[in-house]
Amino acid sequence: MKNTYPKPMIIIHWLTFFLVATVYLTGGNPTTTGLLGQIHVIGGISIFILFFIRLSFIFIYNKSIPKNETINQYQKKIFKMVRFTLYLSLCIVPIVGWLALSILTDNFKVLFLNLPLLSSVRDIQYIGELHEFLANTFITIVGLHASAALIHHFIFKDNVLKSMLFKRNK
Fold first, then answer.
1. What does the alpha-carbon distance between residue 52 and residue 90 come to, in Å, rounded to a whole number?
2. Which pLDDT tens digit goes with each residue over 23-81?
3. Concatenated DSSP letters for the chain?
């Protein structure tokens, strides 16, 4: 049995990581932060789109996804909860960010295109704080995810981390 993810899934995993890190580092009010605000919004939109591409890849490559052995049922439940939370966050955090942006302005251009915004949420002031809270929670879960991969690599000495890395040709 193959113990690495298909290359398209590895690419989307690391591209998503890069985008999440970029969006996190460019956080703030996109209407007042200029280029950083543009990067933040474009990154958020890209993460949202990649979420759906990732889901389609899961169905396309389902038989090629490694089925790593888990140590026990407890670990398997934690894995499923973390995976669900990560995937949910990839969808929900950008949506709440879009709603938060809708509160801040009537008009926001991404590159040269006007982003469609909702004027109906203008009075709901806590959405910006909710976006920030969800984003920080997501980053915490990403950190736990990365820590678990390192624990698998250095303590359990299994192939969990290696399954998501590109193989070097020898």
1. 9
2. 999 999 999 999 999 999 999 999 999 999 999 999 999 998 887 666 688 888 988 99
3. ---S--HHHHHHHHHHHHHHHHHHHT-S-TTTSTHHHHHHHHHHHHHHHHHHHHHHHHHHTGGGS--PPPSSHHHHHHHHHHHHHHHHHHHHHHHHHHHHHHHH-S--EETTEEPP--GGGTT-TTHHHHHHHHHHHHHHHHHHHHHHHHHIIIII--STTGGGSPPPP-
Structure tokens at 29: 């009010």
Q: State which amino acid sits at residue 23.
A: V
- Looking at the DSSP assignment, which residues form a beta bridge with residue 114? 109
Pick the CATH number of 7-164 from 3.40.30.10, 3.40.190.170, 1.20.950.20, 3.40.50.2300: 1.20.950.20
- Distance of alpha carbon 20 from alpha carbon 143, whole angstroms: 12
